């Protein structure tokens, strides 16, 4: 049968690739490798940390997926390197040959160079199930009451939300002047900040961590802030800054920049090695990662398919029942932009238009019927003529029934 098709990583890109590869290669040997022993949704990690679900409860692939698809899954297998000349994946013990290889190892968290943070025993990240498991063990064994979180992005607030659900006090430090600075503006950020504060969270905005107090067990007992304040804590979570997980590629010759460099076929600088998902630094969006995995699998099996969906500035948020969709620019990036806002008791809407083209949308409180906004931004559709007739907030699906293949309106 020959060497197997090997996929490193059982996240969104890896699972989607495996499913598609089996479709195109019904008899081929397919092997997947992962450090974690559970295939899980990173978006659901906070539900595990909060205690709402167990490891199986945050899986996004059916429990019988690997058996049904006849895919061998090497659980708890950490990849140490790749030898493209010998076409081998190097493991902690031994190696695995491959016919074609897909790297879908996602991203890893970084620990900032704050004194004590990189050496203390109680500093955690929150990218994988193993991170959440370590944190859960620390909570139980140390009877944690207060946690310090670095970063108020989506990951930081996910951690905070989960810990608050368990009755643990959290303090969140953020260098920016608002929470979720990449997804919100001042208005939408304030709404989320107030909800977290009502639940018991404390924020330190525009302030960074500058040092730490460490006990004789090599644990941080307090974090020193740049304003001179000290915040006592039982452990620290670093939720600011991630990078593609590609340290194991050192010496392989595979070309990397911010992430693994791939062409339109998701192929790396080695013709038998492909990459998909966060490790490519193309997109951090779940659907995009899955599509990249499918495209890579198709090409690994001899098809000719191109990946073209490089638009990735999209986030959907839901904390305490308050939903928000943020697509494109949060604040106008160039002069001459028009900014339209509309606010009522339970909703906030913001649209950024430049040269007749929608560049960014925020919908908070009600994100229904929002698909056309994503289409307009992604495809750079000119809405100038519509804006001559109606408010930007009156635009809807019905306005685009007459849109032709060139993106122009066919007015009667």
Please provide a written account of the structure.
The chain is α/β, with parallel strands linked by helices and about 400 residues long. The chain is about 20% helix and about 25% strand. A hairpin with a 2-residue loop joins strand 22 (about 345-355) and strand 23. Helix 1 (about 10-25) runs parallel beside helix 7. It starts with a strand and ends in a 25-residue tail after the last helix. Residues about 405-410 have low confidence and may be disordered.
Oligomer: single chain
Mean pLDDT: 92
Helix content: 10-25%
| Structure annotation, total helices | 9
Largest sheet: 5 strands, parallel
**Gap between N and C termini:** 61 Å
Q: Report strand %.
A: 25-35%
Radius of gyration: 23 Å
The secondary-structure class comes to alpha/beta
The low-confidence runs, each spanning 5 or more residues with pLDDT under 50, are 406-412
Key attributes of the depicted protein:
412 residues, five-stranded parallel sheet
What's the structural blueprint in terms of helices and strands?
Layout (H helix, E strand, L loop, with lengths): L4 E4 L3 H13 L5 E4 L11 H5 L15 H4 L2 E4 L4 E5 L4 E4 L3 E3 L3 E3 L3 E3 L13 E2 L4 H14 L3 E5 L3 H12 L3 E6 L11 H13 L3 E4 L3 E6 L5 E6 L4 E3 L2 E4 L3 E3 L28 E3 L10 H15 L13 E6 L2 E7 L9 E7 L2 E8 L2 E8 L6 H9 L4 H4 L25
Parallel strand pairs: 1-2, 1-7, 2-3, 7-18, 9-16, 10-11, 10-16, 11-12
Antiparallel strand pairs: 4-5, 5-6, 8-17, 13-14, 14-15, 19-20, 20-23, 21-22, 22-23
Helix pairs in contact: 1-7
